[in-house]
Amino acid sequence: MDIQEIRNKAKRLLESGEVKVVVGYERGSTESKSTPAFIESPDDVDRLIWDATCVNNLAAYAIQEAKNGGVAIIARDCDARSIVMLVQEHQLDKDAVRVIEVPDETQWADDPALPESLEERRAFWAKEFEKCTRCYACRQACPGCFCNTCFIDRIVPRWAAKRAGASDAWMFHVTRAMHQAGRCGDCRECSRVCPVGIPVHLLAREIETFVGELFDYKAGMDMDADPVLGTFTPEDPDPNEHGG
Amino acid sequence: MSEETTTIEQQTEEQKPKVWKPRILGILCNWCSYAGADLAGSSRLQYPPNVRIIRVPCSGRVNPQYIFKAFQRGFEGVLVLGCHPGDCHYAKGNYYARRRLMLLKKFLPSLGIEPERFHFEWVSASEGIIFAEVIAKMTKKLEDLGPFSGVSVVQGVTQINTDAEDEHR
Ligand code: SF4
Ligand code: SF4
Ligand code: SF4
Ligand code: FES
Question: How many CB pairs lie under 8 A apart between chains A and B?
Fold first, then answer.
């Protein structure tokens, strides 16, 4: 997509007053990096860039920026799904947000495959979570993690100890993945920001696969749809039909 | 939940059962299955005594975190029982629960946990016999699977937390 087209759209939205800020990307500290840009004046739209260095899911800024008036966000397909999800979850007023769609040109890194046997899988995750420093960057970067107080920060009840260690990290990550049911658009931001390279997005991706299989639901596709775990039908898959 | 687990930790320590029995955490709806369990008890139906029961007001109150927490603490199996669809005292609680718990059951293998370690089903207040059967069947399945080595086995080292550890951090 032509960068000029993106800049023009941003300019129009700011000039018309439809939005107060456009969240996009600008050149970072080096040529090989981009950084999120918050453009508030039509005169600044030339700072915007769009190339392979633009990888962050900017939907993570949507809630905060929408509070100061309308916000437009430059979004790939997966990021746009996060924005739709936030509207569905009543975190974002749909009139306060515009999406400037851009084609997905990200060079996605190869994903490690989950091992075949259950025993190996358990060991796989234990080995990964052993590395977790509990910095919570994954959670902070994830648009689906919008809670004011995360369960893991609660004192009563305490769901896991605060120290690093595979067992407590397991508790954090599997619960976080479950909380992403129907919210994850597979932007892989959680894994990208992890300082120790844990592929945490695989957990949320597994959850989304099963959400699709069980409830024929895909996250962030329809602003007017109820979140998948916030609704039901009497005909839903039943434990007794599935061998309990 | 914390009191329950402490009791079990202590019990395994103190009683040192000679025959290994899988430890099951049962989370039961007050209005149906808990009453069913009560009936099973008062009718003196035989069922293996290795279940620790938590009573909840409705299966809709069962947060998936309870189940993860139980596995993290090393329970061999977790059981959730609620009122039959259509019979929930809060009308819809079990329908919401069904979505969450079906999803959780499918997710367990992604974590390397056998799906048989988690069971959920509908058991009414009058189904004391069914309650006893469910426990017996699950116990048998878990015995076949064998002890659960925990969620954090890295190179043969198992880390299972106790309440005391959680609270001192
Ligand atoms: S992990 Fe769960 S509780 Fe924590 S911020 Fe994310 S969604 Fe909220
Ligand atoms: S891939 Fe990770 S960061 Fe992106 S929505 Fe899913 S869980 Fe959140
Ligand atoms: S970003 Fe990585 S190290 Fe930090 S809490 Fe998440 S998984 Fe752990
Ligand atoms: S009251 Fe028993 S499941 Fe809702």
Answer: 138
CA distances from A119 to A33, A125, A165, B54, B153 (A): 40, 10, 19, 29, 10
pLDDT in tens, A19-48: 999 999 999 999 999 999 999 999 999 999
| Residue in B with minimal Cα distance to A212 | B103
d(CA B64, CA A174): 10
H/E stretch holding B143? helix B128-145
Close Cβ partners of A117 (under 8 Å, ≥ 6 residues apart)? none
Residue A203 at interface with chain B, using a CB cutoff of 8 Å: yes
Please report whether residue A57 resides in a domain: yes
Residue A40 lies in a domain: yes
Tell if the pTM clears 0.80, that is, is over it.
yes
Q: Report the number of distinct structural domains present in chain A.
A: 2
* DSSP conformational letter for A25: E
Number of domains in chain B: 1
- A141-162: pLDDT as tens digits: 999 999 999 999 998 888 998 8
The domain that holds B96 is classified in CATH as 3.40.50
Asked if A178 lies within 8 A of B99 by C-beta distance, the reply is: no
If asked whether residues A40 and A74 sit together in one domain, one would say yes
Tell me the chain A residues in contact with residue B112 when contact means C-beta distances shorter than 8 Å: 118-125
Domain limits for position B112: 22-158
Q: What is the pLDDT averaged over residues B21-49?
A: 85
What is the rounded distance in angstroms from the CA atom of residue A125 to the CA atom of residue A167?
10
**Position A109 in a domain:** no
**CA-based nearest distance B84→chain A, Å:** 11
Clarify whether residues A125 and A230 are in a common domain.
Answer: yes
A137 lines ligand 3 (CB under 6 A): yes
The residue to mutate among A132, A178, A179, having the most atoms of ligand 1 within 8 angstroms of its beta carbon, is A179
Establish if A91 belongs to a structural domain: yes
Backbone angles phi, psi at A66, to 5 degrees: -65, -20
Q: Answer yes or no: is B140 within a domain.
A: yes
- What residues make up the domain containing A226? 118-241
Using a CB–CB cutoff of 8 Å, tell me whether A151 touches chain B: yes
Q: Do A167 and B72 touch (CB under 8 A)?
A: yes
Q: Is the CB of A140 under 6 A from ligand 3?
A: no
Same domain, A90 and A9: yes
Q: Which ligand is nearest to the CA of B83?
A: 4
